[in-house]
Amino acid sequence: MAKIKYCNPKTMAPPGGHYSHVVVANGSAYISGQLPITAAGKQLNAASFEEQANQVLANLQAALEAVGTSISKLVQVRVYITNMSNWPLFNTIYANWAGTALPARAVIPVSELHYGFLLEIEALALVE
After folding, report:
1. Taking the CA atoms of the chain, what radius of gyration do you get in angstroms?
2. Fewer beta carbons under 10 A from the terminal one: N or C of the chain?
3. Which DSSP helix (H) or strand (E) runs through 93?
4. Using CA atoms, how far apart are residues 40 and 68, in angstroms rounded to an integer?
5. Phi and psi dihedrals of 100, rounded to 5?
6. CA nearest 31: which of 84, 72, 75, 1?
């Protein structure tokens, strides 16, 4: 029987609903949608797109590290973005963050996100 591990790292704000930041099952880490919220729980909805993007990626990295994996083990990343004119800037920030990792990726334009945030990211990574 497959074992499921739920993880809410202390390096991240507690989840804002009935979910876990990361679920590990069958050698994979499923990372819930990460929003631009600091570890202290501050919502960065008034921050610039660049600040929001950097915080979301920091949250994603914290989630990966909490279950013993890393950016290099990402398999797929899904990005929800409210304004496609921010995509070129996001792509640059993301490329610098991801380095040589080239996971499959999708961008999904959305009309809005919780609390007026500008982007959200969810991901799948291997845990070895």
Report:
1. 14
2. N
3. helix 87-98
4. 22
5. -85, -10
6. 75
Q: Are 12 and 21 in contact (CB under 8 A)?
A: yes
Tell me the CATH number at 72: 3.30.1330.40
33: number of Cβ within 10 Å: 19
The conformation of residue 43, written as its DSSP 8-state character, comes to B
C-alpha of 31 from chain center:
7
- Average pLDDT by stretches of 10, the chain with 128 residues: 90 95 97 97 97 98 97 98 97 98 97 97 96
- pLDDT given at position 117: 98
The per-residue pLDDT for 2 is 75
Placement of tokens 């600091």 in the chain: 38
CB-based contact 62:54 (threshold 8 Å)? no
Domain range holding 57? 4-126
Residue with tokens 């996001």: 90
Its pTM surpasses 0.85: yes
How many distinct structural domains can be found in the chain? 1
| DSSP state at residue 29 | E
Host H or E run for residue 81: strand 74-81
